[in-house]
Amino acid sequence: MAEIVERLDRLAREYMVQEQLLVYLAAKGISIYNAATGENITEAVKSDPMKKAVIQIQGVFAELEKSLLVKRLARARERKRVENGKCEGKKGWNDTEPERKAEILKIVKAMRRKTRNGARPCRVIKPLLIG
């Protein structure tokens, strides 16, 4: 049985995980082929120490690349949070439709208001949403 991976960094972004996956899959009789090079990675690791070293180095650099990306994204989120006060999470109605603020507030207040018998006035809200 054989599996194809686009590149080794797509198999795993951490070197230790990559190494364990290669050992595990080889033990199960599954060969891994690198689509970028066409090389049988499982055989390369078993037979050639130089190719094994290159594969290990690729794994180390994939892990480094992931760590740098995570750090860069964290800094960007923090910078956006400082600028806007919010960065992550679901966007609120005021973020997506600020020009409808007054109209939406009217709908929300109508939804919260109860009638004299304590029921919520659903029939009052429908025309506001449709209209």
From TrEMBL:
Domain Resolvase/invertase-type recombinase catalytic: 1-84
Pfam families in UniProt: Resolvase (PF00239)
Alphabetized GO MF terms: DNA binding; DNA strand exchange activity
UniProt xrefs under SUPFAM superfamilies: Resolvase-like
Superkingdom classification of source: Bacteria
Gene3D superfamilies listed in its UniProt record: Resolvase, N-terminal catalytic domain
Protein name in UniProt: Resolvase, N terminal domain
